[in-house]
């Protein structure tokens, strides 16, 4: 009897996901639940090698983060609070956590460890710079002048990253050569280049993009590229990193609704995929262009989001 009742509740929950009322009312097409791919898309070699070098498996890492969320009442409460602030279902945050800690890093054994690390970053003297030049000075160069038109932090840092890719990455400018690498890796990861941080595995540039939205919703102080320790502390502390995760997921949902005409809020595998990939506005616009020629096109999950949808029956009860 209990099993039958659980299955009824689960199906009802999935049905609610599948048919968002706002999407129907506004003529936006709701992305169906579940995976578009019958089998999991290929997992990148980097994720495979990290997992093998740690002498573990993806299944073990998945179970570890799933059980970590299930066993920590405070974490589950904070997930729900952060989701409510930004008007998203908490399963989207759970999906991002599951993906990050299954395919990128292992979850820390104790929730409190993240608070300790956050405090240590806050006391550090790190800066966001490359080859002696602070990023705040770098983006004052004339090449970045068009970005001054954007007041919102997301658009502002997106513009600056576009300028970096077009004008500086892999090029020599005014006699100075620059690495052919991501803006975030060159300027924003002075501790361990190429890594992300905290429970939500955020990188500092992602946090700077979302800071206006987080500040508007939570009234928290805005982050600044001139205060690297505060940025690191914010993405390391679980309560604040969950707010940033929720904001980033909300931005993805809004971008796909606005630019692609689809509502992804009922498919946590898609939001997890976008959390993994980033560049959500560019991706939404690209899909919108393709959908004008073929309105039946829908966003597809990658390996990371595929796992979230595949294990949804296990994950939904964590936040229900």
Structure overview:
- This protein is mostly helical.
- It has one domain.
- Helices cover 60% and strands 4% of the residues.
- It has 17 helices and six strands.
- It has a two-stranded parallel ribbon. A two-stranded antiparallel ribbon has the order 2-3. A two-stranded antiparallel ribbon has the order 4-5.
- A hairpin with a 2-residue loop joins strand 4 and strand 5 (176-177).
- Helix 5 runs parallel beside helix 13 and helix 13 packs parallel to helix 15.
- The protein is globular, with a radius of gyration of 20 Å.
- The two termini are 19 Å apart.
- 39% of the residues are buried.
- The model is unreliable at 1-25 (pLDDT under 50).
Write the layout of secondary structure elements.
Blueprint: H1 2-18, H2 21-26, E1 29-30, H3 45-53, H4 58-71, H5 73-85, H6 91-103, H7 111-122, E2 129-130, E3 133-134, H8 135-138, H9 153-168, E4 172-173, E5 176-177, H10 183-187, H11 204-218, H12 228-236, H13 238-260, E6 262-263, H14 268-277, H15 280-293, H16 303-310, H17 312-315
Parallel strand pairs: 1-6
Antiparallel strand pairs: 2-3, 4-5
Helix pairs in contact: 4-6, 5-13, 6-14, 6-16, 7-12, 9-11, 11-13, 13-14, 13-15, 14-16
């Amino acid at each position: 009897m209990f099993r039958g009742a659980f299955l009824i509740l689960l199906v009802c929950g999935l049905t609610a996901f599948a048919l968002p009322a706002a999407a129907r009312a506004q003529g936006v097409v709701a992305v169906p639940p579940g995976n578009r791919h019958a089998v999991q898309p290929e997992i990148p070699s980097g994720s495979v090698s990290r997992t093998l070098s740690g002498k573990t498996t993806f299944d073990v890492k998945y179970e570890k983060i799933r059980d970590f969320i299930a066993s920590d009442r405070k974490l589950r409460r904070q997930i729900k609070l952060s989701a409510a602030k930004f008007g998203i279902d908490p399963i989207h945050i759970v999906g991002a956590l599951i993906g990050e800690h299954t395919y990128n890093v292992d979850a820390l054994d104790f929730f409190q460890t993240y608070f300790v690390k956050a405090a240590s970053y806050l006391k550090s003297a790190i800066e966001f710079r490359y080859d002696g030049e602070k990023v705040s000075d770098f983006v004052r160069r004339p090449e970045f002048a068009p970005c001054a038109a954007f007041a919102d932090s997301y658009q502002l840092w997106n513009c600056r990253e576009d300028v970096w890719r077009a004008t500086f990455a892999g090029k020599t400018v005014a006699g100075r050569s620059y690495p052919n690498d991501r803006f975030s890796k060159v300027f924003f990861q002075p501790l361990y280049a190429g890594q992300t941080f905290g429970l939500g595995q955020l990188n500092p540039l992602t946090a700077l993009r979302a800071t206006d939205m987080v500040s508007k919703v939570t009234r928290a102080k805005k982050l600044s590229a001139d205060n690297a320790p505060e940025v690191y502390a914010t993405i390391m502390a679980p309560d604040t990193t969950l707010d940033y995760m929720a904001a980033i997921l909300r931005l993805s949902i809004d971008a796909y609704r606005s630019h692609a005409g689809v509502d992804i809020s009922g498919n946590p595998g898609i939001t997890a995929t976008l959390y993994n990939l980033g560049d959500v506005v560019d991706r939404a616009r690209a899909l919108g262009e393709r959908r004008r020629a073929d309105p039946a096109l829908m966003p597809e999950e990658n390996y990371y989001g595929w796992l979230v949808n595949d294990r949804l029956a296990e994950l939904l009860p964590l936040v229900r």
